[in-house]
Every structure is written in structure tokens, then in C-alpha cells.
Amino acid sequence: MNYIRLNLQMACEEVNGVPKKRDFLRWLYGMLSLFKKQVEITIRVVDEPEIYALNMMYRGKNQTTNVLSFPCNVFEEIKLPLLGDLVICRQIVERQAYQQEKLLESHWAHMVIHGSLHLLGYDHVKIKEAYNMESLEIKIMNELGYQNPYYLK
């Protein structure tokens, strides 16, 4: 049985256009149903200064990014359902959707799926890992009714 407890934090100045909690849950359920897990996850929607600071602090990257994933693996031996935290930058998601001519909702869904796969241990550093992760992202997006997120017009 799939059960998702979502802690949604709106830490951005402008919330117009940010998906509702039910949207985030729909995307998570569509994705996590493949893994048969009960999970607890936090999604924090932030502005550029916060994502910049977190990216610098935790990844040593002197730039902003669209999504950061912080897996919770400290309690593996206790078997708690804590999956981890996603931090998503509202402005970057909106800007990328516009620049890539994607529907905003679709790009939000992709960021949630992409970040959640990182929480589950997927990565895209090596070519084979990237292929596996992107293939899974495309499959999940299609099952949710969205186009291939890597197809650019």
C-alpha cells in the first residue's frame, strides 16, 4: 500500500502559479506507486537567494539550481519512512518552462519526479545512470499524462 505524508513549505514571496498540495501529491503518488513505498517527504518551494545559499553550502556550487534533493538515510536501520527533502526554486522552474516552451505544470511535475528519484538513489552522473534515470522520468511523466520532459521544441 502506498502512503505519502507530504510536508509542503511555501518559503517564496510569490505563491501565484505554484502548484497546490494536491498536485504535488498526485505527482508523488504517480511516481512512488512504482516503488511500493510508504514515505514521508518535505517539499520546500523557495526563491533564488535560498536555493543559491543551499547549493553553495551543500554542493559547493556558486550558482542557483532548479531542485535540490536531501535524502534521509540516517534512520535506515530503524526503518522509518522518511524519504527526504526536496527544495525547488520557483523562479527557476518558471524561467526554464518559459525558455524551453514547456507547460509550467509539466515542468513542476518533472522537477518533483526528478528530485524524488534522487531521493531514491538514482543519479545521472555517468552515462548509463543518466539513461536509466531519464528513461524512468519519461515513463512516469507519460503515465501522468505529460510529454517527454527531455523533448525540446
TrEMBL record:
Q: Which domain of life is it from?
A: Bacteria
* Enzyme Commission number, as recorded: 3.1.-.-
Gene3D superfamilies noted in UniProt: Metalloproteases ('zincins'), catalytic domain
Which PROSITE patterns does the record cross-reference, listed alphabetically? UPF0054
A single Gene Ontology biological process assigned to it is: rRNA processing
Localization (cell): Cytoplasm
GO cellular component, alphabetical, reads: cytoplasm
**Required cofactor names:** Zn(2+)
HAMAP family xrefs: Endoribonucl_YbeY
- Tell me the protein family, please: Belongs to the endoribonuclease YbeY family.
What this chain does, per the entry, is described as: Single strand-specific metallo-endoribonuclease involved in late-stage 70S ribosome quality control and in maturation of the 3' terminus of the 16S rRNA.
State what protein this is by name: Endoribonuclease YbeY
The gene coding this protein: ybeY
